[in-house]
Write a structure and sequence with these properties.
Elements (H helix, E strand, L loop, with lengths): L2 H27 L9 H8 L3 H7 L3 H21 L8 H18 L1 H11 L3 H27 L9 H22 L5 H17 L6
Length: 207
């Protein structure tokens, strides 16, 4: 295969993969349950063959994980910008969580599917757990760094505190989005920020 042919093939392959991904997003955003979606339903909607699907994805779980992986990168890019130093952390956290909630709302169908599938699909469950563990580790690192600098209370258990605010915060965001029309996002982001900041990063030390 010549270089132009190879480039054309790669471009077509990438376009087909993107088309399948966007098809699944469309179905999920329309309210279809991931557990009830079949590969046949996806390929019919995408108007491709079963062989084409399996040329790009190993399974229904694989295509969902690929979608979620792209989303995770967006959230991690936000998390990497977080620095407790400088500006008042509670205000910065509020803006951070406002952006996180906006991303969650924009991709609610995919995130709902991931949480749903994680309860019964080991591959998705492993991905979901690893995803949160990555955020957990990042928060532990910042808490320990703040403790070393004397900014965070020395009696704080960084591991336990991170586990509570990361895993609990994730569930809280998911529930908030499911029951709120978006009008309460700013208030929710502010309260979540203050719980993180004053409950962990700047919690008063025990006397």
């Amino acid at each position: 295969m010549t270089r132009p042919q190879a480039d054309h093939h790669a471009a077509r392959s990438a376009a087909t993969r993107a088309h399948l991904l966007s098809t699944l997003v469309r179905l999920l955003d329309a309210g279809e349950s991931f557990s009830e979606l079949s590969i046949q339903r996806i390929i019919e909607e995408a108007e491709v063959s079963r062989a084409t699907f399996y040329a790009h994805f190993r399974s229904k779980s694989d295509i969902l994980i690929r979608l979620a992986d792209d989303l995770r990168e967006s959230l991690l890019a936000l998390a990497r910008q977080w620095d407790p130093a400088g500006e008042e952390g509670a205000d910065r956290f509020a803006r951070f969580f406002g952006e996180v909630i906006a991303i969650h709302r924009a991709h609610q169908g995919v995130l709902t599917a991931v949480r749903e599938a994680a309860s019964y699909d080991p591959a998705v469950g492993d991905f979901y757990t690893a995803d949160l563990e990555g955020f957990d580790e990042a928060v532990v690192a910042t808490l320990l760094s703040e403790q070393a600098a004397g900014s965070t209370a020395a009696d704080l258990d960084a591991v336990a505190a991170s586990r509570i605010i990361v895993w609990g915060g994730n569930q809280a965001i998911a529930h908030h989005i499911s029951v709120d029309d978006g009008s309460g996002d700013a208030v929710f982001a502010r309260e979540l920020a203050r719980i993180w900041w004053y409950g962990a990063y700047r919690r008063p030390a025990e006397s």
